[in-house]
Amino acid sequence: MQRTPVITVILSTQMAWAYAQFLKRVGLDDYKSLAVDVQEAYEMRAAGEAIREELARAGYAPR
Q1: What are 1-60's pLDDT values in tens digits?
Q2: Which pLDDT does position 43 carry in this prediction?
Q3: Helix ranges restricted to H, the chain
Q4: What is the CA radius of gyration of the chain?
Q5: What pLDDT score was predicted for residue 32?
Q6: Taking 90 as the threshold, does the pLDDT of residue 63 lie above it?
Q7: Which of 5, 15, 16 is nearest to 47 (CA)?
């Protein structure tokens, strides 16, 4: 049985804003250039979106 990972990270305000900005700007082409295949790129993007959503819930949602 596979467990769902729960990750807790402590970031400074500057780090949270910087990473939120990164996740706002990164696109599928960026993930594709770093992934071994298209499936991995989509999984990477999904993970990034999950982190972006949590940053937004914490108040770090750049326009």
Answers
A1: 789 999 999 999 999 999 999 999 999 999 999 999 999 999 999 999 999 999 999 999
A2: 98
A3: 13-25, 28-34, 38-57
A4: 13
A5: 98
A6: no
A7: 5
- With beta carbons less than 8 A apart as the criterion, state whether 41 and 31 touch: yes
Which tokens sit at 43? 């999984």
Closest CA to 45 of 55, 56, 33, 57: 33
Contact 58, 26 (CB under 8 A): no
Q: How far apart are CA 28 and CA 9, in angstroms?
A: 24
Q: Is 51 exposed, middle or buried (0-12, 13-18, 19+ CB in 10 A)?
A: middle
User: What is d(CA 54, CA 59) in angstroms, rounded to the nearest whole number?
Assistant: 9
Residues 58 and 22: beta-carbon distance below 8 Å: no
